[in-house]
Amino acid sequence: MTQLQNDEIFNILVGKISTAINRTFLRAFANEGMEITTEQWSVMACLWEKDKVTQQALCDITAKDKPSMTRLIDKLEKRNLVTRVSDHNDRRINLIHLTDTGASLQRKATEIVQMVATKTLNNITEEELNTSRIVLKKIMANLK
Q: What is the pLDDT along the chain (144 residues), one digit of tens a residue?
């Protein structure tokens, strides 16, 4: 098999894995009555870790561009999960803040994510997982 064929197979495999994981998360959230996407979850998870951060900080952490983040925050705000609050020091900056409803989802969402992660990583040794992390981080670094 040529290098090009190997690269094509790798690209297809990575895409399929990403899609399968995303579908699994969406199904798991829906089964528990949580109407949230994986992208929305990624923003919420950042806010559960540290509340009242700028939209730019969320972009940096999640590697999403500003327009995508704006749409995500708009949707979360419509669902009363987050709100935009003006920064006391600079009113031009909005801080993204969890509402009580948004904060209340943390435990359930974290349990769901842990369940999916456990299922996803079943029969994978710690050594295999560490090797995978190293390789994927190198690939990401190469793409920057």
A: 455 566 667 777 788 888 999 999 999 999 999 989 999 999 999 999 999 999 999 999 998 999 999 999 999 999 999 999 988 888 788 899 999 999 999 999 999 999 999 999 999 999 999 998 898 888 888 877
Q: Who contacts 110 (Cβ-Cβ below 8 Å, separation ≥6)? A: 48
Residues 122, 128, 134: CA angle, nearest 5 degrees: 125
Q: Does domain 37-104 have CATH number 1.10.3720.10?
A: no
pTM: predicted TM-score of the whole model, two decimal places: 0.79
